[in-house]
Model the fold of this input.
Amino acid sequence: MPLPPVAEINNGSSKRISSDNGTTPTTGTASMLDTTPPLQENVHPNHALFKKMELLVERMQDEKEGVPIKNAKSFMSKVPSVFTGADLVQWLMKTYDVDESEAVSLASLTAAHGYFFPIDGHNLTVTNDGTFYRFQTPYFWPSNCWEPENTDYAVYLCKRTMLNKTRLELADYEAESLSKLQKMFSRNWEFIFMQAEAQAKVDRKRDKMERKILDSQERAFWDVHRPMPGSVNTTEIDIRKSCKLHKPLKTRKANYNVPGGRLSPSLLNKKNSLVNGQASSPHTTTTATADDSNNNQDTGSGGGAPGKKTSVSGSPPMSGVDLAASSSEDLHQMRDLLKHRLNKSHVKMSKVADFLIQSCEQYKEYDPMLTPAEPSNPWISEETTFWDLEKNTKDYSTRRVKRWAFSIDEVLRDPAGKEQFAKFLAKEYSIENLNFYNQVHELKKVSEKEVVEKVKAIWAEFLDPNSALSPVNIDSKCMDKTRKETQGPNPGRHTFDDARDHIYKLMRSDSYPRFIKSEQYRELIAAKRKANSSSASTSGGGMTGNLITRSSKWQVARKHMEVTYGGKRSAAAAASDAGTSSRPGN
Amino acid sequence: MADAAPMENHHPPGTPIVTPATPAGPEATHENENNNAAVDPENEQVQELESELSKLKDKLQSEREAVCDGMLNDTATSLDNLTRVRLKTRRTLNGHAAAIYTMCWRPESHEMVSGSQDGKLLIWDTHTNNKINIITLKCPWVMSSGFAPSGNFVASGGHDNAVSIYGLKGEMLPEKPIAQLTDHNGFISSIRYIDDTQLLCSSGDNSSALWDSNCGTKLTSYEGHTAEVMGLAGSSDNTVFVSGSCDRTAKLWDVRDKVAKQTFTGHDLDINSIAFFPSDRAFVTGSDDNSCKLYDIRSDQAVATYTQLNLNYGIGAVSFSKSGRLLFVACDLDVLIWDTLKSLKVGILSGHEARVSCLGVNSDGNAVCSGSWDAKLKIWN
Done:
C-alpha cells in the first residue's frame, strides 16, 4: 500500500496542532462525514501530550513573559543560561493560578520528559529552591520520536571517559552500563571508540560556555532515555501503541557534534540484537526490552518475531474513503452500503434518550452499585449466599421473579425462569417451541465436527414435515429455505437461524405475554410476597427507596444483612451517610 | 535562549525520513498502467461513483442531523442526580511482577484471568484471592485475554500475532496452549468468547475475526477498518459486535457478515476501548482524545460525550455497571465513575500507583475490577 504523499501528512499534522490545546475540539468537518481525516504517521503515541508540554515550555521560554533566565556566577566560573527552581514554580503559580504543590508537580512531570533539567545530577525533578535548571534544546525533545540505541549510548559514555574533567566522571550506574556495553559490543568496540574520539576532539575545540550547555543538554537527553535507577522511565510506551512508532521507518539518528553528522554506516545498518539490554534495574530493562522487541526481527527467538516485521506490513492507514487507489468494485460496495443505511430509518435522539433512561431505571434495582445486592454483596459481607441463591432454581426472591416480567430475554436468561416458562408452555402444549429454541442454541456451542449431525437431529425432531416428532410451526418460505440448507452440502450452525427467529418472535408475542399474565406467574409473585415478613424498611437517603425484603424463611440471609447493614455500611448505599437508614428489625 | 545552534540538522517532526518512491502510489496508477485506451471510461466510472458516494454521504449526514433533537443529558435533566458513589477496594490481587495489560471476567462467575508483561496469565478466584492457575506464556507481550463461559478455556493474544488457547480442566494442563490461531498480521488487541468453541478477536492488521477454537479455523474475517482495531465488544445475545479502531471510528458488525453495518465517527484520536450498553442498543467508546462517547445504534450517532481533560494517557478502558447507569472509565491512575444519563461525574476510585490499563465489571454487576501497570488488580464495590 502506498504511503500517503507528504502533503497530506502535513495537513494532518497542522490539524492536530490546532486541536490539542487541552480542550476537546468541536468535531471538524471531516469527522462528521464518513471520511476520517488522513492519519498521521511517524507520530509518537504520546504526541498529544508532548504538544501540550511544548506549548507550556514555549511560554516559559518567552523572553518577555517567561521564566527569568540568567547567566549565574558561581565560585570561579559562570553558569550560563539557567533559571532557578523557585523562579519556575513562582511563574507557574502566577501564570496558571495554581498552588505550590501543583506547580512543583507539574514542573517535575515536564522535567521527567526531558524538557528542562537540573544542571547537576541525574534526577529529573524540580524543587522549589535555588537549584539551577536549564532548558533542553528542541532538537532533543521527545516529540522528535527519539529511540537512541545502545551503540549511541556506548559512544556517549566512552566519550565522557575521554574528557578529563572531574565533574564529567561517570556515575556508578553509568560505569556499570559502560562495562556491560563493552561486553556487548566487544567485536565492534573500535568503531565506537573511534566515534567517541572524534566527538571528544570536536568537543575540546568548542567554546567553553557553549560546551557546558551542550554537555548538560546531552546528559539530560540520556537521563530521559537511560534513566537513573529508581527514577520513572517516561519513555515507557504502551505496547499497544508501540508498533506505531515503527510503522514507517528508521529511528532518528543523533547528529551529535560530529561534523558530517552520523554514526558510521556500518553501525547504522547493523540492528544489533539487544537481548538482555543493559543495567538490571527494572526501568532500564523495560526500555531495553522494548528495544528488544522492536529490533528483534531476524533472530526470531521466542514467540516469533513480535511486532516489528509485521507492523510495517500491517498497512499504513489510508485516509477514509476518498482514495484514488480504491477500485471501482470497492466503490460499488461502499455505495450499496450507504444506500442500505439510508433506507433504514434513524430514530430520534430524544426517543433514544427515553429508551436509555427507561432501561436504566428498570434495572436500577438489579445494579449492585446502585442498590445493595440482596441478600448481601459477597465481597462486602464475605458470604457467598448471593451466588448460591442465584444458582438455586427452587427458591428465589420476588426481585428475581419480577425481573422476568421485563422481557422474554430475562426469562430465557435465568434458568429458574426458563424452568417456569417451560412448565407453562407444557400446559399449553407448545413446549416444542422452547425446546427447538434451546436446541438451536446448543447447536451454536457444539464443536465443528458435530455440527452436521446435530443439524440433522434437529431437523428430524422439529422440522421434517413428514416425520418430525414435535413439529414447530414456521411459514412455508422459511421451511423451504431451511430444508434446502439442511439437505444441501454444507449444513452449518446458522442453518436454523431464520426459523429460530420466527419461533422466538412467536413466543415473545404470544406465549410470553400470556405467561406473565398467567395464574402460575402471579402465584409465584404472590407466594414470595406472602413469605416475606411485613416490615419493609427503606434504605436512607434519596438513593433508591428500595424495599429490603426479608423472609422468615431466610434466617441465614437476615443474619448476613445484620452483619452488612448493622456493622459496616454497604458502600453502594452511600446515601445513608446521615445515618437515617433503619436497621433491619430484630 | 542560549540553546545550541549546531543541532539544526534534523527533520521537522512528522515528515517521513524515507519518502515513498512514487508519491501517487503504485496502485492508483495500476489500473491505468496497462491499457491506455481503457483508461478513460474506467476513470470516468470511478469519478462518477465517487461523486455519487459523496452525495450519499451528505444525505446520510443530513439525516443524522435531522434526528438530533437534543443530547442524552438534555432529556435526562428531569432525573434526580445520583448521590456520590463511593466504592471501596475489597480485594487487592498481588501476584504479577510487571505491568498488567489485560483482564477478563469469566461470564456468570467470579473467576477472572489477568495477563501481564511478566509473561504470565493468572486465573483468580477473586472472592478467596486464590490463584486457581498460573500459565506461562511463550510470548510475554500479552495484550488481551478471554475466558470461556464454561471455565474450560482461556485465550490470550498479543504481539505474537496469535491467539493462544489454554485448557484449564481435566486432562488439559495449562502448560502448553492446546491451540494457536495464527492467521493475523498484527497484534491481537482484544478477545471475546462467544461460547466455548467460538471466539472473536480484533487485531492490529485492521481486521477482526471469528474463529472456531476447536478446529482452529477462521470462520469469518471482518475487514473495513483502515487502522489497527484496538477493542471489540459483543452484544449480550452475541449476534452483533462493535469494534473500535485507531482510524477513530467504531463499526457495528453482524456476526454473520464480513462487511460492517454501520460506522460511527466523532473521535479525534485513536479509540482504545469499547463496551456495549447492557440493553444492547448503544455502546460507549474510550479514546486518546480524553473523551468517551455513547453511540446509539438506531440513531447512528453519538448521544452523549464524557470528557475528562488533562489526562496524560488518554482513556484506556471503559466498562458499564449492570444497569448501565454508571460508566467506569480508566483515567491515568484512577477510575472515574460517570452517570451515563446525565453526563456527570459521580465518583472516583483511587489507589493504583501507576496507570490503570484495564477494567471490567462482572456479570452480576457486583464488582468492578481494575488492573494497572503497578502489577496489582483491585476489586471494588
Notes: Chain A is about 50% helix and 5% strand.
